[in-house]
Input
Amino acid sequence: MDRSTRQLLSGDVIVTMNAAGQVFSPGVVVIEGTRILHVGAEGSWAPQGGETVVDCRGCLLMPGLVNVHTHACMALFRGLGEKRSRQQWVAASYAPPYMERAVPADFYWGTMLGGLEMLTNGITCTADRFSHMALIAEAFDRLGMRAVLCHTLRDITGAPEWEEALALVQRWGTSPQSRIHCGIGPHAPDTCSDDLLHQVRRVAGETGGRIFIHCAQSEAEVTALRARGHAGAVRCLAAAGVLGPDLVAAHCIYVDEEELRLLADSGSWVAHCPVSNARIEGRMPPVGQMLRHGVKLALGTDWAVSNNTMDLFDEMKCAGVLDKVAAGDPAVLPSAALLRMATVEGARALGLEAHTGSLEPGKAADVIALARDGLHLEPWHDIPAALVYSAKGRDVRHVWVDGRQLVRDGRPTHVDVGALRKEIDQIVRRIMDPGLPYST
Ligand SMILES: [Zn+2]
Output
């Protein structure tokens, strides 16, 4: 490798998130091409000439954050649906108000907006699923983010869109080596028949794609499944053979002890989305019990409709606060555990532990630099506590994915934000046209 492709990042603090929990202060991260070559204390790397030195003094360097559940395109509908009850969300099949007015190209621009928001907040890797995924994949590719994408499958209202789902897999593959790759995305147990869920497991086996599903998000979902002869949403997935270490199940609010055991024994992942759970359902999953059973947890922002941002720093804080209250135990989810959920555990949930989630030689150079000088961060007595409870996405100054710097001084290096705003403006004006009938 040509040394001129080497970048030497020097920072005040390097939080590696490796298995030993190493922190170097001050330290360096050396990137060669798309990969991390070296991580260590200041002076541990002898410059060999030709490296591009990136001065990150005043910053903390850490791995890019991993968001295991969202629908980025729905950033277009941020702030709508505020007046809905949980029953109204279910009745609308979770479609936000005005969504019927969107045309396919809007989903591309919505993803550019949501994806860029994530990137500038330090999220370098995300799982995303919706419809119009061919366009959405193009947007994530243009953004330079790492993404695992699925086309949503359901058969409660019509035939499942297998053609689109498989075309996406055909186009982008399922290899975790590829920055953009695909999984299989059944919508939820109550919107997919048992037959469809069986097919999903078979196709996942054939393609090597991981499975992403919503699960036990509402009482109405569990009631519908009882009418189908399943005692719960997780039990329904177990009966179809869908549970397993390659499954990421979002929400899992309404689950009983037996279902927690099924999730833990199968090695399935829960995508914990605390803000969305609070704002749509007013409930938290039983995280305290999940942890006692050994259920694996990672963190998702879910969409901006019910969050209303996609900022994993915020999400870590909300998870910490809400789950302590839900469990009646302030010891639940200490800061270090929350930080792992947003980094290494997120990477494991997506099958990407060999590629991202920590700063280690050989992994992809997915790195963020967080400015340390905010008054809300001073003084730095406890690094995990500072990152979970004090830091915000807006503290992120620089972002690299695969060694490519995508954010410099808080601004994207590769997207014209002014032009993006104009596109979004036009779409919003059309969608919100008061002269047209609309849903609420
Ligand atoms: Zn979702």
User: Anything to note?
Assistant: The first strand starts at residue 6 and ends at 15. DSSP finds 15 helices and 18 strands in the chain. The two ends are 56 Å apart (CA to CA). The CA atoms of residues 94 and 228 lie 21 Å apart.
